[in-house]
Amino acid sequence: VQLQASGGGLVQAGGSLELSCAASGVIMAIHDMAWYRQAPGKQRELVAAIGSAGVTNYLDSVKGRFAISRDNAKNTVKLQMNSLKPEDTAVYYCYINRSPYWGQGTQVTVSS
After folding, report:
1. Rounded to an integer, what distance in angstroms lies between the CA atom of residue 46 and that of residue 43?
2. Which of 3, 51, 79, 97 could form a disulfide with 103 if both were Cys (CB 3.0 to 4.6 A apart)?
3. pLDDT in tens, 66-96
């Protein structure tokens, strides 16, 4: 199983980025998927999750700004991030819930 994350980068505060995670070796449709992030010196935290039926939940601080979605036909999960803030700066990881499988991480840096 491999999870390939992409889409990170450097953006100014107020800007947008879209992260994408492509899965191989697994049928994503039957799994709950999530995005986590880890900032320097902090613990990894759940940012957004989407169930196999499409139900979503979000970290309170990103509600209304981030949107998680999935395309089971393409075996991908995405995270649209709008109105980015400097405190969103972190390495973002995609994850298959209740599994040992993590993506490699993609850096998101938001400048003030």
Report:
1. 10
2. 3
3. 999 999 999 999 999 999 999 999 999 999 9
